[in-house]
Amino acid sequence: MGERLINFNAGPSILPVPVLEEAARNLVEYGTAGMSIMEMSHRSKEFDAIIQDAEARIRSVIGVPAGYQVMFLQGGASLQFSMLPMNLLGAGQTADYIDTGVWSSTAIKEAKKVGTINVAASSADRKYAYIPKPESFKLTPGAAYVHTTSNNTIYGTQWASAPSFDAPHVCDMSSDICSRPIDMSKYACIYAGAQKNLGPSGVVIVIMRDDLVARSPETLSNMLSYKNHAKKKSLHNTPPTFAIYVVQLVMKWIEAQGGLKGIEQVNEAKAKAIYDAIDRSSGFYRCPADKDSRSKMNIAFRLPSEELEATFISEGKKQAKLHGLKGHRDVGGCRASIYNAMPLAGCETLAKFMDEFAKKNG
Ligand SMILES: *Cc1c(COP(=O)(O)O)cnc(C)c1O
């Protein structure tokens, strides 16, 4: 096997090596089951134990109070952009959305196909370089829900703390779920595609309070109905069994890191290593994001020219095994995605390479 690269991919992205190794050990035969998890019925006792344990660990790691459903769904976070208004937005109601980047504006576009949407705040005026301040929110009294995106994967901004709303708060946490402790009782729903912080692509975790689950209209197709998925314990149809198994392993790994408190400490040190390299470069590197809105998961940065950015990316790959540093095609530049599984040493290697590159080319 070749040596592993330092993987800054935005998603699908790096997974903890012990998780990959354990999944590999069980790939051909799960324990003594005589077959792989991929070959088992989703109604077998082995898989039942896996999905129940995965759910229990998600509940304990995140700290989900009683009165919430945990669902394992498909269709990516992107299908949630449609399912949320289809299930939660009643006739004549309005949902508020806060627009902080590509994913939240996509969520808004999809929701507008379903019902009445009010954009309560937006940072589009400065190319999504900041998180809007609560004083600027133009919220709808009696809104069906308020939708936010906790971390903006492409622009590299993140809410420093959760805002409070009167209406139920629904949050897309695809790119920072389980990266820090949260107070789940402040949210009515959080959801995330697994492929950034929780496991492989193919499964979406939706955690939703019972009163929202109960809103699903009976006329909705079963595959689109939260009420149906919750009632069937995510087994209405064949779920992505192997992906759910890997999520279970990632949850065990998070517990072994000291839970979300332990994970947060390391994540802070990782982000600091790279932002410090940016800030001490005398302007060679710059972050489009405002300082108080900087993301600890996706660090977007620019160099003095696009030519230097291309050289930085290719030399980083050749000299230091740094992989996946190209920014999103919509915004260009560079981006280091440093999800939970990225070790501090990977960020330190990047920071050192940044120092050397700036000295040589500045
Ligand atoms: C990646 C991402 C999505 C899209 O996820 P899919 O699983 O590809 O649909 C949505 N929201 C955020 C914040 C993301 O980072």
Tell me the total number of β-strands: 13
Report the CATH superfamily of the largest domain.
Answer: Type I PLP-dependent aspartate aminotransferase-like (Major domain)
Distance between the termini: 37 Å
Q: What is bound: which ligands?
A: pyridoxal-5'-phosphate
SSE string, helices as H and strands as E: EHHEHEHEEEEEEEHHHHEHEEH
What radius of gyration results from the CA coordinates? 21 Å
> Can you give the mean pLDDT?
97
Structural class: alpha/beta
- When the domains are counted, the total is 2
Number of helices: 10
Q: Which shape, going by the Cα principal axes?
A: globular
What is the second-level CATH architecture of the largest domain?
A: 3-Layer(aba) Sandwich
Helix content: 25-40%
Tell me the name of the CATH class of the largest domain.
Alpha Beta
Low-confidence stretches: none
The CATH topology label of the largest domain is Aspartate Aminotransferase, domain 2
Strand order of the largest sheet: 2-10-9-8-5-3-4
Percentage of residues in strands: 5-15%
Instruction: Tell me the major beta sheet.
Output: 7 strands, mixed
